[in-house]
Each structure stands twice: as C-alpha cells, then as structure tokens.
Amino acid sequence: MLRYFTITFILLHSINLQAQKALAWPVLAMTNYEQDPMSGLYTPDFPSILEEHYEDQEVVIAGYLIPVDIEANTYALSKNPFSACFFCGNAGPETVIELKFDKDPGRFATDKYLPIKGTLRLNRNGSGLFFTLLNAQISG
C-alpha cells in the first residue's frame, strides 16, 4: 500500500512540475521600456519575476486574438480589444504578445477572447514585440 501511495505521489508531482504557469497581464505590465527617438524602436527592461519565473516556461494567458497577417498565419494576443490595442496606438507594447502556433490554428474572428498556452520567450533585441509564445495553442 505504501508503494502505491509513493508511486502515485511521484506521478502527481511530476505532472504538476510540467503544467503550465498562469501568466497575468499585470506581470507583463511590470516591463519598463524606452523608445529610441531616431528609430522609434522600443527597448524593454524586463522585471526579474519574468526572467526568473516565466521565461522559457510553458505559460497560459487569456486575451483578445488579433490577426496580424492571416495569409502568413501571424497572430497576436492582446490585453485589450482591437479598438484599444497596441497596434492602434491606444496601448503600450507590454500589452501584446506575438503568437507562434505549433499547428495551423485555423481562422479566428478579430477580438476572440481565448486562453492561449505556449513557451514564453522574452525579446531583448528591441525589434519585434517584447513577448512571444512559442508552440502556441488554444488552451480551452
């Protein structure tokens, strides 16, 4: 009986270690940034919580799906709906995440609110969006 509980505990513990972490928009909002006046590019300064606890980890976050280029299968996840998102100039770059789907997700309507999971990558080089979810997939 003890052996059964030990094996069950180990299995449950290993499953829990590999589960995705919930990521909230306020954590992403802790990212500070500066804009280069010449190029217009933003340079992020990520908080230690993102670097230490979320970077290269599988996370799940819900937001509004924004099609960037439907033909190229390029989407972003936004904290805000399209009318108030970063691409319209109504929010900061910390409110949007680039999505790299592992499989073709099909087509979505703009502003579809969905939970998305994927591996969080932080973009430090100043080009592109600050955050990317690699191997993204719908999580609900």
Give a quick precis of the structure:
The protein is built from three helices and eight strands; from the N terminus they run αβαββαβββββ.
Walkthrough of the structure:
It is a single chain. This protein has helices spanning 2-18, 25-28, 48-53; strands spanning 21-22, 32-35, 42-45, 58-69, 74-78, 96-101, 112-122, 131-138. It is of the alpha+beta class and 140 residues long. It has a single domain (20-138), classed as OB fold (Dihydrolipoamide Acetyltransferase, E2P) (Beta Barrel). The strands form two sheets. A five-stranded mixed β-barrel has the order 4-5-6-8-7. Strands 2-3 form a two-stranded antiparallel sheet. Strand 4 (58-69) and strand 5 (74-78) form a beta hairpin. Mean pLDDT is 81; it is low at 1-17.
Question: What is the number of beta strands?
Answer: 8
Architecture, according to CATH?
Beta Barrel
State Rg: 17 Å
**Which stretches are low in confidence, meaning pLDDT under 50 for 5 or more residues running?**
1-17
CATH class: Mainly Beta
Net shape: globular
Report the sheet with the most strands, covering strand number, pairing sense and barrel closure.
5 strands, mixed, barrel
**Through-space gap between termini:** 36 Å
Count every helix, treating DSSP H or I runs of 4 or more residues as helices. 3
Taken in chain order, the helices and strands follow as: HEHEEHEEEEE
* CATH superfamily caption: Protein of unknown function (DUF3299)
Give average pLDDT, whole number: 81
Biggest sheet: strand arrangement: 4-5-6-8-7
Approximate helicity band: 10-25%
Whole-number count of domains: 1
How much strand? 35-45%
Judged by helices, strands and strand pairing, the structural class is alpha+beta
